[in-house]
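Posting for a labmate who doesn't have an account.
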Amino acid sequence: MSAADTRKMVHLVDDDADVARLILHTLSDFGFATYWSRNGAELRRELSRRVPDLCIVDLGLPDVDGMDLVRELRKNCACGVLILTGRAHTSDRVTGLELGADDYVVKPFEPRELVARVRSILRRMSKSEDPAEAVRRVAQFAGWTFHFDSNMLVGPDGVETALSTAEAHLLHVFLDHPNRILTREKLLGERDLSPYDRSIDVRISRLRRKLEADPQNPKLIKTVYGAGYLFASAVSWK
């Protein structure tokens, strides 16, 4: 348990009391502050009073579709979003990540793995807010400008696009390592990434749709088959 964890609030949204007790107990054991909502309405009321550092959202809620709630959180709250659900279909996983969720865990799950996923999301968010990066707030590449303090991407035509926390973290890693092949583990910041975990590929696809004129034939974020991805551009900072 680290000092940083004790300051982090995790809000769970799940109508299964047994699962909720397990998650809350585990997170509390690892030093996180926790709050539990049984449905979307309870979460919305709580969000009007305080915004957590991260929300864990079950997709099978009684009063709202979990995917709609993920979309709402990503649009209105500056918090991490972790989907926790019994839906194991790849299409559900991809949809959740497309909507801006930072990660996706399928029930049944190992409690310690859930803690590791929570920590990973919060760690990525903390890096994007690191005061040491204050001198590198704006990056320019291939006619684009990215503002780290607001996660705002400005295109060559001046059109602004807000990136999610996960997208901003991914772009930041690319900008820090231009013209170098980066493994999926490096891009996600995970050492023991499952070979079946395709979340990074979904995030790459999302980022390409915002950066590339033709996402099917990318010029900036290139796939290096069998190795990873390469960001093909010079980068300047100011």
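Reply:
Got it, the structure tokens are right above this. The domain at 3-128 is CATH 3.40.50.2300 (Rossmann fold).
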